[in-house]
What we know:
The chain is of the alpha/beta class. It has eight helices and nine strands. It has a nine-stranded mixed beta sheet, with helices on both faces. The longest helix is centred in the N-terminal third of the chain and has 12 residues, at 22-33. It is globular and about 55 Å long.
Amino acid sequence: MRVPRNRIFSLAELVAFGTICEEAADLLRLIVERRFAFLVSGGTGSGKTTLLSALLSMVDPRHRLVIVEDASELRPDHRHVVALECRPANVEGAGAVGMQALVRQALRMRPDRLVVGEVRGAEVTDLLAAMNTGHEGGCGTIHANSADDVPARIEALAMAAGLSQAAVHSQMASALDVVIHLGRGRHGRRRVEQVAVLARSANGVVTAAPAVTFEADGAVTRHPAAEMLSARLRKA
């Protein structure tokens, strides 16, 4: 049984704990401020929910956060939150309310930020559609071993829901801006390892190009895609 924490950590506290370095914190603040659409990726127990809660706590207090989750875990320190939670079927097998239905209904609630606590099913199609219809700043978490694996993970989920590969990548290219990847070291230390930019290649397939990598020893490596990220931040 997983018991969510009642206490929410701020970004400054995550910096103090070593989960995020100062340069990464500055970049994440800009991503939230400029209303980028992003996913927080990582393995089980890597701290995805903790980081996303901290990032949502920095959203403009005038913005309405509509959060959709299978089980309530996100509790951002924000004054304008609407939380929707899935409901299982009763003993007669009726009354179930799933993630996909909640994401669709969330769009009727005038969300300034649509948040899907964990993308792991057919709801990915509705989330991508929402991000392509003027809902800026959408975000969520997704299980993946690396930022590079995120497009393939989304493709698998969306194709299982009935979208073609071409449609998935077309939606993904215009819906998502960046992936923030978390890792967990051998000693259990969780930290932000990479920020990657999602971009469409010449063959139409979306890939996650590493922009900035944050090493365990504190070193920061900028990749060629860092210029693309900087350009998007300036334009936003």
